[in-house]
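cron nightly-structures :: item 1 of 1
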Amino acid sequence: MTTTESFTNIEIERFDLADAPGVFALVRLNRPDDMNPLDFQTAREMRAAFDALDLDPEVRTIGITGNGRAFSAGGDMKGYVKMQHDIPYFTEFLTHMHEMFLQMGRYDTPVIALVNGVAVAGGFETVIFSDVAIMAESARIGDAHLPYGMMGGGGVLTWLPRLIGPSRARELIFSGRLLSSAEALEWGLVSKVVPDDELIAAGIEFATSVAKKSPLAIKNAKRVMNSSLYDGHSVVSSIRFEREATVLYCGTSEDAQEGLAAFNEKRSPRYTGR
């Protein structure tokens, strides 16, 4: 069974997982006629939706995709004509985008981008700040700011070199070209490419695999990995943090004991998130 909640510029579709507890919540950008631009209203709705879904214990994975032929063509170019002349407002908008993208990595719940159609500029940034990205075969992604006299400001100039290396990042930013799904997979920007009509099913399959795990273990594993990446910790301090988090989880949580008991008793585990 699925249910849908509508905002002004987005909608949330919830999928019951047949073989696992909980639901997969899919946030759909819903201005298809305009290729799902990320204006301030849409960004506010996205952040509000993500915040609420992360606090919902039934939601085991949060997805993001676009309705229509695009994931997102990025910022509202028509709106930028006015916005960029209002420096305080433009600064507020970019600050909101930065906080939202960074928070995606800090949520307890994994965030997966399901990339349909074109994802450029802010749409591309949404993809690269997600925990996991799966891409439709016909989709294309890239920065695409410089061809329009713009420059990326939502985090792409900081995060992309850390993901794919400085040389490839510069080539993609300076050229403004879009990557095919095959190139995006080769470059490590997405983890999987699927036929267009199997994109949502791939998201549900991933969400099902997550929901079978301890939500507390997922939370801790994500926190350890992303804190090292986002905060720039050294390998030594990151390993220390990993050790401390692992000892705390394995030594004190009910889920760790349940996982061991289920293995020894040859049964499926029943995790509670405690």
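cron nightly-structures :: done
The chain has a mean pLDDT of 90.
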